[in-house]
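cron nightly-structures :: item 1 of 1
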Amino acid sequence: MKINRMAALAASVALAATMTACASMGGMSTDSGSAPAMAGMSGRPDADMQRVLDAHAALGARPIESLTVPQARTQPSPADAVMRVKTEMGMPTAPDASVTTQNLVYQAGMGQQPVRIYKPANATGTDLPVVVYYHGGGWVIADLDVYDATPRAMAKALNAIVVSVEYRQGPETKFPAAHDDANAAWQWVVQNAASWGGDPENIAVSGESAGGNLALNVAISARDKGWTAPKAILAVYPIANADPMLKSKTVNTESLPLRTPTLMWFGQHALRGPADMQDSRFNLVAANLRGLAPVTIVNADIDPLRDDGSTLETALRSAGVRVERRNWEGAVHEFFSMADVVADAREAQAWSFGRLRSALR
């Protein structure tokens, strides 16, 4: 996420207190919020989205920046809130048995990191498409279990092998360790995909939040180093712009589960110092983006990272990259994995997975 200069953060918070968003009600948009804004938020969550937020609060979740790192890693996650809502609605909570999983490890730095391979249970043959997926969590929190829903849904929807990658996190190991691990995992998947029934030449890369940033960086590294390149890139509310004064950051000071002060907390623990904010691996809008595969960007409107997505879209278009972005009003950060209980998530998955499907033969 991001480290802010203290003065810039203070200005952001002060500005947020005076700003409101005014537009018409609606579902999906391509710009800023349309629902009447709440204090410190760019819009009002839809009813099904609010139900998940209420469940998260009922489980005792607190703003991440108010916690220590161990507390943040062990408190109830948005995925736990989804499970609570499913229980309340009488829905099954067991993992979808139509997708199987296998846990392996790959070499990362001086040690190893886990990966989880998702595969349709009825899949046969040796030429399934492959998608490498990087989870979110600001390069500090979360793991393969917290982010199980998206790769599981992706494997089923695409009839593909999806490899969900763990990577080193801060503060134990700071930037650019996660980026180095993401690259190592990509090469490892390409080398081993055939042994799982996948086609290593028919491959895409994807990620959410910090993982969306990693996905784009892997595509850049593949281009620059001559590795097998992804055919498509899916970045869900990616971290992409170091500017603390982007509008979505100045208005979303109270949006949960991610709000502007949380970004500073993540940056303090994930980055070595303020200079890392200007590294093009973090500040993707300043990177050389030419020659990348088509990019799909999903954004939530009530999210400080919304305008990271919009400015990244502009940068990609300027670089001649094919890119499509959609922004879901009434949705918050982390909504994408909530398709079982949030309508916007179902729509976002159907659209973005469809774009991946069209790129993978």
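cron nightly-structures :: done
Confidence is low (pLDDT under 50) at residues 1-30.
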